[in-house]
């Protein structure tokens, strides 16, 4: 179990490091604005990012590693990578929409929308612990239960989701043209501004397929 927690901690720290690097090297102008205009809120956001990535993620990963992953095969199963990404996107889409539409769940999503006008890439993980468990982590647990992937196959979609979760919160990417089948930073930033559209994140644009 200790080895599993260490692996989970490494994954969580990797996601944390990606966010910090994007903040400092891509979104430095936005970072200055955040630190100047919402210093107290940003401190809370950084606290939640650390809790989610460096505490909750390793604990959940250790459970998945011990009970749900296949430790007998080593090759990367591309089909399962794609299916894990699909399961995660569906799970996130459903929970995200629930947190906008169902009164008893709205409280879990309030923190993230405090960053509607000032944000940097790492804010993608500045969510309540409850939201992180329900919308970010649980879809991966469900995917692992359904598909029984090996560790390499499971880690790849986690890292893809982690990277693109930062990308769609990057204001510096807002004007880059994106495929209509993928969630663009412009779409997600618009979601932060108006809140009633673009529920998909962070990669596959399920809104395009489900809400045409």
Shape: globular
β-strand number: 0
Distance N terminus to C terminus?
46 Å
Mean pLDDT: 97
Q: Report the β-strand fraction as a percent range.
A: under 5%
Given as residue ranges, the uncertain stretches (5+ residues, pLDDT < 50) are none
**Strand-and-helix sequence, N→C?**
HHHHHHHHH
Radius of gyration from the CA trace?
Answer: 17 Å
What about the largest sheet? none
Number of helices: 9
Compact summary:
With 212 residues, the chain is mostly helical. The protein has helices at residues 2-25, 28-37, 39-67, 78-101, 103-106, 129-147, 151-167, 185-194, 206-210.
Structure description:
By secondary structure, this protein is mainly alpha-helical. The protein is 67% helix and 0% strand. It has helices spanning 2-25, 28-37, 39-67, 78-101, 103-106, 129-147, 151-167, 185-194, 206-210. Helix 3 runs parallel beside helix 6 and helix 4 (78-101) packs antiparallel against helix 6. The relative contact order is 0.16.
Descriptive key words:
212 residues, mainly alpha, 67% helix, globular
Task: Please give the structural blueprint.
Blueprint: H1 2-25, H2 28-37, H3 39-67, H4 78-101, H5 103-106, H6 129-147, H7 151-167, H8 185-194, H9 206-210
Helix pairs in contact: 1-3, 1-7, 3-6, 4-6, 4-7
